Amino acid sequence: MVAREFDVIIYGATGFTGLRTCQYLARTYPQGVRWAIAGRSTAKLEEVRQKLVAIDPALSTLPIVQADASDMSALEAMTARTKVVLTTVGPFLAHGIPLVEACVKRGTHYIDSTGETPFVNKIIQKYHEEARAKNVVVVPCCGFDSVPSDIGTKLVVDFLKSEYNLDTKSVKMSLRDWCGAASGGTLASACGIMEARDGNMKSMSNQNELVPESAASKVVPAKISMPTIFYDYDFKQWQAYFFMSSTNEKIVKRSHGLGVEADGIGYGQQFSYYESMSCPGLFTATTTTVATILGGIGLGIGPIRRLAQKYILPAPGTGPSDALIAKSHFTIEVIGEAVKPENVSGEEGEPIRAIAVVKGGDPGYSETCKYLVESALCLVKNEDRVRKENKVTGGVLTPAHAFGQVLIGRLRDQGAKLTVSRL
């Protein structure tokens, strides 16, 4: 890649998540990163810059770039100035596609916070092959959607391979504990997903939707994973439908599929993946699942969705208070089971299993900002290592496939609690 003026441009810096992403970068990397903020309104960007000056007075001269999401010439001019664009501007299906096009055209790497699989599917279809040919790395879903699921799975898969030289047969994830709130932008994206799916729950639960076509015949066909309620003896709690599973499961399966495309095996020839959410009892699991289903159906009906957006849901650009963010947290557990070794029987033949634990602060506005910035810096500070270790060329990838242990290491360096051990 030719030399660029900036390492990273944060696009959408005036939004709720964008501002907090800027604040994380300002606090964590006061030196060593050449960056700028970008968005539609220079006046609002100036307000963001003044807030950043409170963190680091040197940011009084932080460059501002004006670019509207619908202005292709402005987007191309912006992307030509930087090595990586990090964007939080959603709903992505409505506003994000021109920016991906500009990045691929200008040879600029791309990171985003989306959880919208219809958007991911569309940019795969439109830009994956061109990005691969140009060695441009495009990585959507680098926020809470879907880094904990994706790198949690990567942790157990790599552990079983490195410690026991075994492929992974199955992985299950449970959100064990969490406290947090969504912003208006996040809920607007959720409405966008339902609008794109037209309320089709079967379409939303097609796990293999994002698996590369060239690997589809080598990936275990995914059963349609509709919401269920069950007791899990490993997690030792009742399990409810996890509202983010419809995105996370697809991203993890794409990571596996990209691995299959690369080496014929990926995570393992029998690999399967499933997510759920732990609840203290059957009643809570039932009410949580039913409420999630009804909410999804409601958002899938156009008139109800529009009324909710107008009168009930918070407006884009708004979000939880700093006090609530400070109190928020989450814990995710990921359990992987290895393929049973051949010619082994008896007690020694019990499946080998591993457990990864991912813990953090507020999912959306503490950890997401960390995930986004550290993902971008994988391409700024560690690009040679990323390409060598993960055999990455380019294309529309996933956090685990693109960054793998490099991202895990960067997150640990910044205090993320990521552990893996034998179960």
UniProtKB/TrEMBL annotation:
<dbReference type="InterPro" id="IPR036291">
    <property type="entry name" value="NAD(P)-bd_dom_sf"/>
</dbReference>
<feature type="domain" description="Saccharopine dehydrogenase NADP binding">
    <location>
        <begin position="8"/>
        <end position="139"/>
    </location>
</feature>
<dbReference type="Pfam" id="PF03435">
    <property type="entry name" value="Sacchrp_dh_NADP"/>
</dbReference>
<dbReference type="InterPro" id="IPR005097">
    <property type="entry name" value="Sacchrp_dh_NADP-bd"/>
</dbReference>
<protein>
    <recommendedName>
        <fullName>Saccharopine dehydrogenase NADP binding domain-containing protein</fullName>
    </recommendedName>
</protein>
<dbReference type="GO" id="GO:0005739">
    <property type="term" value="C:mitochondrion"/>
</dbReference>
<dbReference type="GO" id="GO:0005811">
    <property type="term" value="C:lipid droplet"/>
</dbReference>
<comment type="similarity">
    <text>Belongs to the saccharopine dehydrogenase family.</text>
</comment>
<dbReference type="GO" id="GO:0009247">
    <property type="term" value="P:glycolipid biosynthetic process"/>
</dbReference>
<dbReference type="InterPro" id="IPR051276">
    <property type="entry name" value="Saccharopine_DH-like_oxidrdct"/>
</dbReference>
<dbReference type="GO" id="GO:0005886">
    <property type="term" value="C:plasma membrane"/>
</dbReference>
